[in-house]
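PROTEIN–LIGAND DATA SHEET

This sheet pairs a single protein chain with one bound small molecule, zinc ion, given as SMILES. Inputs appear in the order they were entered. The predicted three-dimensional arrangement of chain and ligand is reported afterwards as a token string under its own label.
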Amino acid sequence: MLHLDDEILIGYAEERFDHGPEIKSHIETCSSCGNKVRDWSDLILLLKSAPTDSAPADAIWKCIALYRPHIRSVVSNDRTILIT
Ligand SMILES: [Zn+2]
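PREDICTION REPORTED AS:
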């Protein structure tokens, strides 16, 4: 089974665009994509509720896990900076 791209799942989680019935149907019937949308929704909610200068450690680690394939380097000083 083909799954939806992360970009589509994130957009769905953010309600950023008008998704078609096929995308909605896939997310409702595919446990893998449905779980990813829930993970993204949880992360988005967590980030919206936290000040940007002090993101909770679990939110940072979720971001790292989600973006790991796209991360080129991590710079650590007094802050952690992710370069995607
Ligand atoms: Zn799927």
